[in-house]
Amino acid sequence: METRQQGYLDSEPLREADEDAASEINLNISTMTEEEREEIQQELLKLEEEISTLKQVLSSKERQHAELKQKLGVTSLNELKNNFSKGWHDMQTSTAYKKTSETLSTAGQKTSAAFSTLGTAITRKIGDMRNSPSFKSFEEKVETTVSTIKTKVGGPETGGSFEEVLSSAANASSQDTPTNNLTDNSEKAC
Fold first, then answer.
1. How far apart are CA 85 and CA 79, in angstroms?
2. What is the reported pTM?
3. Residue-wise over 167-190: b if at least 16 C-beta within 10 A, else e?
């Protein structure tokens, strides 16, 4: 006889051996004596009564359990909080959480160090750039331009900061009216 593994979703059709086994069970039921049948029914009734009794006992115990919790002031919300706290604690003490936490901490430290190094490098480059001949030349040109603007706007006797020069230039340009500019331009054209 061939043996094969039985499954819930057996896709193979019934074979002769399966049909033989099914017919043997039917034969056993039909060959059972009336006395055996009554004995099995009595046992079945006894089990059903025990199940019913156990259900009643369980129900009684659940009521007693609820009453005791009520006397202690334990509510569903408290239980939920306790379960959540316990679950959170269990998770924090787990190996996976510890490894992940350590990895993230290390990554944060390395990232912080990298940004610090980058900031230092940028500061150093800016310092180097300010000391370079190109920047000094640019700085001199800006100073010359500012001096020229100061001289043109306020004359050589006026000093002051760059902001003062800009504001005086703005004031001077706002005092020029559009009609004056038109008459000046028309005189130049002639």
1. 10
2. 0.31
3. ebeeeeeeeeeeeeeeeeeeeeee
